[in-house]
Write a structure and sequence with these properties.
Elements (H helix, E strand, L loop, with lengths): L2 H9 L3 H19 L26 H5 L3 H13 L6 H8 L2 H7 L7 E2 H5 L2 E7 L3 H11 L5 E6 L5 H13 L3 E3 L11 H16 L6 E6 L2 E3 L3 H9 L14 H8 E7 L6 E9 L17 E3 H9 L1 H10 L6 H8 L42 E3 L2 E3 L5 H7 L3 E3 L7 H19 L4 E2 L4
Parallel strand pairs: 2-3, 2-5, 3-4
Antiparallel strand pairs: 1-13, 5-9, 6-12, 7-8, 10-11
């Protein structure tokens, strides 16, 4: 066992306690399962009796404290009473912008001086679940930030209409000027973010950092706390960047072809036996993931660099180029916020950009998933709320309201409380009236 894994196991020694709690929750689940099923409670009315999305009658503070009965209740909700919030309902609500802004509380968002002085930009690459996109934006929302949404050209008409409604109602939310038909693990996923980055540089908002998100991400810190954390970076970038394994090297040492696949994204890059030429300009390759926190100076440099353009062109026939593109670029000598090539690997657990729980590391590095697994990734459940909020990362992936809506609802509630707490000790401006 490596020294790093040993340290991680020591760090997560309380996971045995978490396992015990999960066993208790399963017992509670069995107990609750014998209770006669009752219909789900109707959603509470928003202002002016407007329907937004379904909320569940749970105590989020008790779930955060890992109260077995309340977490057990969340298990029963997700097994029996999950209500699907349709894209159509968001289309209907955004057809009346004043009502949408009021019912969702955008008209009462307070902003601290620190947040005004440090605007953030977001690139959201999404393709489904419009309410999840809106809730993600709302949790991070301030009028001084700017949000670019790239929707997949293959998205449903209702989803696109809902995103267009957000664009119409929120002045600092816009749709990417150029949109891709995104295929899993292909250059189109990377190009979607690049399209947003190009638009964000053209914006009048002089944002300090840009963060990219997908529709199954959710923040673990409120905007004002993110601003505090990012200020301390002092222009450095934050993302995973490690030396690739032999297996991952095959992703960019062989030519890949996009072929039809029986898969949600319809096409998939397939490895061929054709070897690629080495990376241009003698670039040393690093790997990471698709997600980043990048300084404005870095993005400006990248946008005008011939080396970056050549590297992007070279990456077009690789597998999942977004998982080596950013990780490699931040290691280039002389780039703003450079991570020197001589420095050790920055793993996903060391980088605070995204907390992901992989099935094969559960019980070794972190406690087991309380939700379900999709392609080895945990879709989080309410039983992980305390762990998520206390690990130290800024965002987590993945969440799905069809799997566990309670954890999303409780994260919203907790982050709203933290935002107000942080703002209570700062100079804050709120809308009049």
């Amino acid at each position: 066992m490596s020294a790093r894994l040993f340290r991680l196991r020591r760090k997560f020694a309380p996971s045995r306690l978490c396992l015990l709690i999960l066993y208790v929750l399963l017992l509670v689940s069995v107990k609750y399962s014998s209770v006669p099923e009752s219909p789900p409670e109707p959603p509470p009315a928003a202002s002016d009796d407007v329907h937004t999305f379904h909320k569940y009658n749970v105590s989020c503070s008790a779930i955060y404290d890992m109260d077995p009965a309340e977490v057990g209740k969340s298990l029963i909700i997700r097994r029996r009473h999950v209500v699907e919030d349709t894209d159509e309902s968001l289309v209907n609500l955004t057809s009346n912008c004043p009502l949408f802004l009021k019912s969702r509380g955008y008209d009462t968002v307070c902003v601290s001086q620190e947040e005004r002085d440090f605007p953030l930009a977001y690139s959201l690459v999404v393709h489904k679940s419009a309410w999840m996109v809106e809730r993600l934006i709302k949790t991070l929302y301030t009028p001084d930030n700017i949000y670019c949404i790239h929707y997949d050209q293959k998205s449903s008409a209702q989803f696109i209409a809902a995103i267009e409604g957000l664009d119409r109602c929120l002045p600092n939310v816009f749709i990417a000027s150029k949109r891709e038909s995104v295929s899993y693990a292909s250059i189109s996923r990377l190009q979607a973010d690049l399209n947003c980055l190009s638009d964000l540089l053209e914006s009048e908002v002089k944002w300090k950092y840009v963060i990219n998100l997908c529709g199954q991400d959710f923040p673990l810190k409120p905007n004002i706390e993110l601003v505090s954390e990012l200020t301390r970076l002092k222009g450095a970038n934050m993302l995973e960047t490690s030396r690739p394994s032999k297996l991952k090297e095959q992703r960019f040492t062989f030519h890949h072809e996009l072929r039809d696949a029986a898969f949600e994204y319809q096409k998939l890059p397939v490895k061929t036996e054709q070897k690629k030429t080495p990376p241009p300009h003698g670039i040393e390759m690093f790997s990471g993931n698709a997600y980043f926190v990048l300084s404005r100076d870095f993005v400006v440099h990248m946008n005008s660099s011939d080396v970056v353009k050549d590297f992007l062109a070279w990456s077009e026939d690789t597998y999942s180029p977004d998982e080596h593109f950013w990780a490699t670029l931040v290691r280039l000598p002389g780039v703003p916020g450079e991570v020197p090539r001589s420095e050790p690997d920055i793993t996903d657990l060391m980088s605070r950009t995204r907390l992901v729980k992989w099935s094969y590391l559960e019980n070794h590095v972190y406690p087991p998933c309380s939700g379900i697994h999709i392609r080895s990734v945990c879709i989080f459940g309410a039983g992980e709320m305390h762990w998520l909020l206390n690990y130290g990362h800024w965002f987590a992936n993945k969440f799905d309201p069809k799997v566990d809506p309670v954890v999303i609802q409780c994260l919203e509630e907790r982050l709203e409380e933290k935002q107000k707490l942080f703002q209570s000790v700062t100079s804050t401006t709120c809308p009049e009236g």
